[in-house]
């Protein structure tokens, strides 16, 4: 967790791209949660809502976090098991000072994490992350006197108002009239708490897989990548369903499988949804990180839409969306943001909106086939301690433009590009390459991985 590079300031010591994460009882300890609770409670100064995903360490870390919050004087409302976007929604809806989600999202079961939520429902800003770290590591972190300690209460199920907000964003009658069948793989995460009920309200016949929350993720790993979703592919084909949906562990993401049981890459599903929203708005701005495929921009440009690229991380995307009045945004991993609902990644909202698009615009395979032809290849390389990115050493002279928004993105005259950036959650360097053909993208990615390796210290 130490020394996370940040283009907007000095390295953060605890927070990565999305919160704090680590292996339980190694980096992610009771002591860390307790002290971070003190820091968050002192920083937010008010009522704080807390929820967890289904991981086995959730009670231990939640108890420590809540103890720290109350020791700092904050009243704590325990929302129990809940998706990250549901907790974010309720924080804003009830006017709380903020929130905390104990979750490591898509990471393996031995990991857990802490996401700190601001009063507006977004994850706290990079600047506030630094302030929290300064409190955490500072010598003046103090508990309040005995008569000012916070209180603890339970909220009960928080998903009802959240589900109603999602349904209010949709053409419910059109979805019901389509009489769709959908296969939903919740991956033993908390997506099973809300998404099946939303689909039921939409009149969708739902075949639910792995809907029981289980922090060991017995069915498959919690990241919804193609290699983990064989059961979903088979279920879609065997059932004749019109769509397959999969969530990650805390249900802030949704990925899709078309009616033929074929996995749809996140860039393409984002482009399909961006087109639908651009048509509805007569154009508009979409915000997404520099790691996202150009396919989104190319798909909405004929509809009067435009794209603004940011550094990687949904908190950054959400804030830029709000500042610029964007109609849509998100990340290529299935974490999409619908501002009329809320400014955070929301797997259930994404799933429901895609169901509406399929119901009103036709099969997902056809919508994807109509998109521009772009191919994105992703590679990674171990990141040595102290490594710093040097665009010149990687071949900036070859590019027509180098974008330093996040890492270094090299644009070439034929429309292809390569992005090299340090991961914000793991000690690795990520390499993204995009071109018109898969072979060109693969060659670009391999070329820049070779260039990168030549700049790294010998093992």
Name the quaternary structure. single chain
Tell me the distance between the termini: 22 Å
Categorize the overall geometry: globular
Structural class: alpha/beta
Short recap of the structure:
This protein is an alpha/beta fold. 35% of the residues lie in helices and 21% in strands.
Please render the helix and strand layout as text.
Layout: E1 20-23, H1 30-44, E2 48-52, H2 58-71, E3 76-81, H3 84-94, E4 98-102, E5 111-117, H4 126-137, E6 152-154, H5 159-168, H6 172-178, E7 181-185, H7 195-201, E8 205-209, H8 230-239, E9 243-247, E10 254-257, E11 263-264, H9 266-281, E12 284-289, H10 295-300, E13 305-310, H11 314-324, E14 328-330, E15 336-337, H12 347-361, H13 364-369, E16 375-382, H14 391-394, E17 401-403, E18 408-411, E19 417-422, E20 428-435, H15 438-455
Parallel strand pairs: 2-3, 2-4, 3-6, 7-8, 7-9, 12-13, 12-14
Antiparallel strand pairs: 1-5, 4-5, 9-10, 10-11, 14-15, 16-20, 17-18, 18-19, 19-20
Helix pairs in contact: 1-2, 1-4, 3-5, 5-7, 6-12
Write up what this structure looks like.
With 459 residues, the chain is an alpha/beta fold. It folds into three domains: 20-157, Alpha-D-Glucose-1,6-Bisphosphate, Chain A, domain 3; 161-369, Alpha-D-Glucose-1,6-Bisphosphate, subunit A, domain 3 (Alpha-D-Glucose-1,6-Bisphosphate, Chain A, domain 3); 375-455, Alpha-D-phosphohexomutase, C-terminal domain (TATA-Binding Protein, 2-Layer Sandwich). It has 15 helices and 20 strands. It has a six-stranded mixed sheet, sandwiched between helices. α1 packs across α2 (58-71), α1 (30-44) packs across α4 and α5 packs across α7 (195-201). The chain is globular. The two termini are 22 Å apart.
């Amino acid at each position: 967790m130490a020394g996370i590079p940040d283009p907007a300031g000095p390295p953060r010591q605890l927070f990565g791209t999305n919160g704090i994460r680590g292996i339980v009882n190694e980096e992610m300890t009771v002591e860390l949660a307790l002290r971070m609770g003190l820091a968050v409670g002192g920083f937010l100064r008010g009522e704080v809502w807390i929820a967890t995903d289904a991981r086995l360490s959730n009670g231990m870390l939640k108890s420590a976090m809540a103890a720290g919050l109350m020791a700092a004087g904050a009243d704590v409302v325990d929302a129990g098991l809940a998706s990250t976007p549901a907790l974010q929604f309720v924080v804003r809806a009830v006017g709380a000072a903020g929130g905390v989600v104990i979750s490591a999202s898509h990471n393996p079961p031995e990991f857990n994490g802490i996401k700190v939520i601001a009063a507006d429902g977004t994850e706290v800003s990079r600047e506030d992350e630094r302030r929290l770290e300064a409190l955490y590591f500072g010598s003046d972190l103090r508990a309040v006197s005995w008569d000012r300690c916070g209180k603890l209460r339970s909220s009960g199920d928080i998903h009802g108002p959240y589900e109603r907000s999602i349904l209010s964003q949709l053409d419910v009658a059109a979805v019901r009239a389509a009489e769709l069948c959908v296969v939903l793989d919740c991956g033993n995460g908390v997506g099973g708490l809300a998404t099946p009920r939303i689909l039921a309200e939409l009149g969708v016949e739902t075949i639910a897989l792995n809907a029981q929350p289980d922090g060991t993720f017995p069915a498959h790993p919690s990241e919804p990548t193609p290699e983990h979703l064989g059961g979903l592919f088979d279920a879609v084909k065997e059932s004749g369903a019109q769509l397959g949906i999969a969530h990650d562990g805390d249900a802030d993401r949704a990925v899709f499988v078309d009616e033929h049981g074929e996995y749809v890459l996140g860039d393409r599903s984002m482009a399909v949804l961006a087109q639908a929203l651009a048509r509805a708005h007569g154009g508009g701005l979409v915000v997404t990180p520099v790691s996202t495929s150009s396919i989104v921009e190319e798909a909405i440009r004929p509809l009067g839409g435009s794209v603004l690229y940011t550094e990687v991380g949904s908190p950054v995307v959400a804030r830029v969306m709000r500042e610029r009045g964007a109609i849509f945004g998100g990340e290529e991993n299935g974490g999409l943001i619908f501002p009329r609902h809320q400014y955070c990644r929301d797997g259930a909202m994404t799933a429901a909106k895609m169901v509406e698009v399929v119901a009103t615009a036709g099969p997902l395979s056809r919508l994807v086939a109509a998109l521009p032809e772009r191919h994105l290849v992703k590679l990674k390389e171990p990141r040595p301690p102290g490594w710093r990115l040097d665009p010149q050493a990687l071949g900036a002279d070859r590019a027509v433009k180098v974008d330093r928004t996040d890492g270094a993105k090299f644009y070439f005259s034929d429309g292809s590009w390569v992005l090299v950036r340090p991961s914000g959650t793991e000690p690795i360097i990520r390499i993204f390459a995009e071109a018109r053909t898969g072979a060109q993208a693969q060659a670009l990615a391999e070329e820049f991985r070779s260039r990168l390796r030549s700049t790294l210290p010998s093992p």
